Every structure is written in structure tokens, then in C-alpha cells.
Amino acid sequence: MEDSEKIMNTDQQSPKTAAKSKDQMLSGAAWRTGADMIGKILGVIYIIPWYAWMGRFGNEANSLFSMGYNIYALFLLISTVGIPAAIAREVARYNTLDDPNMAYRLVRQMLGVMLVLGIVASGLMFFLAGPLSTLVGGKDSADLIPVMKSLALAVLIFPSMSVIRGYFQGLNQVKAYAMSQLLEQIVRVIWMLAATFAIMKLGSHNWQNAVTQSTLAAFIGMLGSYAVLFYYLQKSGNLNKLINPGPVKSKINALEIFRSTLHTAIPFIIIGSAIQIFKIIDNSTFMNMMPWVTNYSHNELLVLMSYFSANTDKLTMVLLGVALTLGSVSDPLITEHYVQGNRRELATLVGYNFQLYVGFMLPAVIGMSLLTKPIYTIFYQIPSGLQSSLFVFAILQTFLLGLYMIVYPPLTVMDHKRLAMRIFTLTLVIKLVLQVPMILIFHTYGPLLATTVSFLVGVFLFIRKLHELTHFSIKNTVRGIQGATLLTGFMAIVVIIVEIILGFIFGKNPGRIASVFIAAIAGGAGFYTYLWFAAKLGLLEKWFGPRGLSLRRKLHI
């Protein structure tokens, strides 16, 4: 009761305190967004020199790297089980209750729990490296074993590191959180490029060793991140308090928080891991089934897998990141309206979310598809017909995968986790049933086709249930989507015309530098066309409110 009164009293803030809180939120959002954007840019740009230094083994190296990372990403999700968010919530709660020492004790206890979890997860990945490599890479996958073992080192320290990040998030000291993420990416990329250059240009030229060093970079990057976090702990004076916390007013059981968080987080982890799980299925089935119907060698299969998966994933993950961001922004608002029983506002928000998603994602997907040749050339090489068609397929499929990232979270936050799990399970079963026959019949297109069909069913079921629960206006939503579709059509015409004109200037098969100009000029012209029509039709104001009006003024439209 006393705790509740303290929390309620904090709601009665003075205008000055409220303004300070708003400034902190905006500052935190700026740090997180800036660090995230720089990290994503680094995560894409490094591909250009890395792939080039791999020489004729670029595609095989990218596939090996991708197969290891798919397993690694799943282990990271499992090893953290939603704990960082739980830590942030509990730290904020105890600081609100004026019991910071309890927050210190909680973090110290959770560091112990997550250190044990990291050791277990890392040990499993390390000692199961052989079977896991055979599972995802086929019988001739010995080169994948050292990759798996190098990534197991990162799994060892990530869970405990995520606790400290959660602590800073709970204090709303987002600068420390953001800087740790940013330095992690910078150190990782520097190690990857330096090691790859040393091996491929100065040393043994063993591309498998270069890939292993590139994946080991995840561990090196986390060491850099840990250094930043400890620096901010020391700078703020919190390090000593974490080591020797004072007396507390409350009681807490770290294991109980861990159990309750685990129970809540499992559906989110499983459903949110769908794309990662499907990628692992693609790796394992393609590499193990293709030898049944073809005479391709192991390395040739790695090349083919890079065409439909590894090479495209590096770029499509940026688009999926946009979808994830849109979903994370709307989820708290959906939760708020659902809890308060504001059904009309909830319906409006869900419909608006679809419109905003299409307004962002559709032009991005279509634009990348139209600029496939210059984009592929910039990052990899001048694409063959097969490479181009698979890249376009994967890019278009990203729209569907991103839509999944938008539609499943509302069901989970509206207390329909079991239903969401059933829909996910059905989606997974369809994928598993279709996967092998699709690969045997369509070869490299098979995994993409199986994923497309399964996600179409899953997304349809999610949207249908969302409509049953919220009764969002299909008519208004479709009308808004039609506007974005029309604008995308205008944009596409401009991109095609500009690309054709530039083709006369730079030739039929432009190199990397020329492709940069083509992508920048044609893409820029298409982007401006989309914004211009959106402003003229009033869609900028509809999507972004006052910010849309401000953007329109800046563009002088």
C-alpha cells in the first residue's frame, strides 16, 4: 500500500518535472536512434570491402558466415529470455520507490544468474558445434565448426552484459546504453576487416579462417561494449554501489523474477524468432536435400545459398529493422488503449499502423527491387540472371516478413498469447510440410516459396483475429493503403525512366562506382517523387501529423 502511494505521488508532477522527463525521453530517443542508425549503416557498409577481399570465395564465405550467425542469433534470444527489459522495469520501479540499493542488489543477483545462463548456453553451442554444423550445413560442414565455436564466446558474455544495459535503461541513462551498442559495432567491424585483410591479402589466403575471425569479431565487439558500460558505471559512481549496496527497504528474489520473466517472455521469444527459425530450416534442408537431386558440390551449394539467403539477408535485415521499429513504437500505445478499454482509439491505432507500415515499406521494397542490379553490384558483383531474380524475390518477400513483425505483437500484448502461439505453430507446420517438396521441385526458389506461402497464411490469420478483437475499419485502412500504393506507382515510373537514361550514360554493365551514382540518382529521384506526391495529397500530415507539415515546409512543397 505504501509503495502504491509513492508511485501515485510521482504521477502528480510539477510542470517543471514533467518538462524534464520529456527532455530525458527525447534525449534518450535521440541517442538510441542515432546509435542504432550508425550501427545499421556500419553493418551494411562493411560488406563491400569484406566481400571484395574474399575474392572468388566471397559467396561461400558469406554463406558460411550467415549459417553460423543464424544459430548464434537464436542462442542470443534464448540466453537472455527477455531479462534486459525486466531489469529496466524493476530498476525504474525501485528508484521510483526511493530504494536504489534494492536496484543495486537486484542487478548484482541477476548478473550471477545470467552469468550461469551464459555459461550453459555457450557450453551447449561450443560442444554441440559439430552436430549443429551438420544440421545446418550438411555432411561436409567441417568448416562451420570453428565458426560456431568462435560465436559461442560471444554467447558466454552477452547475457550478463544485457543485464548492465537493462540497468542503464531503467535509470533512463540511454547514452551509456547507446554508446555500448555503437562501440560494439565499431570494434566488431574493425576486427572483421583488419583480420580479413591480414589473412586474405597478406597471409595464408585461407577464406575459412577469415570467416572464423569475422565471427569471432562478435566476441571482440562485446568486450568493447563491456568496457564502455564499466566506464559509465565508474563515471557515475554506481560501480562501487553495485559491488557493495547499502541497506534496502524492500525484499526481492532474483530467481523469482527470472522465473516470472521466463514465463512471460517465452511466447514473445518463440513467435518473434520465426524469421530466424525459418532461416535455420532453409539452411539445413537446402544443404542436406539438394545433394539428393543434383550433383552440386558442397561449395557450389554454399554459392547457391548465398544467392537466395546470405547475400540478400544482409540488406533485407535493414528493412526488417524498420518494421521492428514501427512495431515497437505502437505496442505500448496499443497496450495502453487495450487496458483502458478505449476500443475506438485502439481500432484507429491498429488501422493507422497498417497504413504507416505500407507507407514506409512498400516504396522501399519496390525501389530496391527496381534498383537490384546497381545495388547488388555495389555490395557484391554484377549479378547474373539467377542472382537478380532471387534477390528481387527475397526483397519482395521482405514486405510480408515485415508485416508479420507488425501483426503478431498486438495479439500478445492484448493477452492472446496462446492464440498467437497456435498461429505461429500452424505457420511453422506449413513451412515444414512445404519445404522439402519445394526444394526438390524448385531448387533455389524452393525455400523462398515455402516461406512465402506459410507467412501468407500466418499473417492472414493474425490480421483476421486483430479485426475480430478491435474492429478496425477495413475500408479506411484500404483507402490509406491505396494512397501509398498509388504514390509508389508514380515513384516506380520515375525510377525506371531515370535508370534507363543513366544506362545510356554508364553502359549496360556499370561497375561499382557507376552503380553508386545510378542507385543514388535514380533512388533519390524516386524518393523525392514519393514525398512530393505524398505532400500534395496530404498524406504526410495524415501519417506524421505536425511533423509531416514541418517536413513539407522544409521541402518547399
Secondary structure elements and pairings:
Elements: H1 2-11, H2 15-45, H3 47-53, H4 58-80, H5 83-96, H6 100-127, H7 129-137, H8 144-170, H9 174-202, H10 207-236, H11 238-243, H12 254-272, H13 274-293, H14 298-340, H15 343-370, H16 372-379, H17 385-413, H18 417-442, H19 446-470, H20 474-506, H21 512-536, H22 539-544, H23 546-554
Could you characterize what this model shows?
The protein has helices spanning 2-11, 15-45, 47-53, 58-80, 83-96, 100-127, 129-137, 144-170, 174-202, 207-236, 238-243, 254-272, 274-293, 298-340, 343-370, 372-379, 385-413, 417-442, 446-470, 474-506, 512-536, 539-544, 546-554. By secondary structure, the chain is mainly α. Helix 4 (58-80) crosses helix 8 and helix 5 (83-96) packs antiparallel against helix 6. The longest helix is centred in the middle third of the chain and has 43 residues, at 298-340. The protein is globular and about 75 Å long.
Major β-sheet profile: none
> Which spans of ≥5 residues are poorly predicted at pLDDT below 50?
1-15, 17-22
Helix content bin: over 70%
User: Structural class per helix/strand content?
Assistant: mainly alpha
Average pLDDT over all residues = 84
Compute the number of strand runs. 0
Strand-and-helix sequence, N→C?
HHHHHHHHHHHHHHHHHHHHHHH
Shape: globular
Tally of alpha and pi helices:
23
Report the portion of residues in β strands.
Answer: under 5%
| Separation of the first and last Cα atoms | 56 Å
Supply Rg: 25 Å
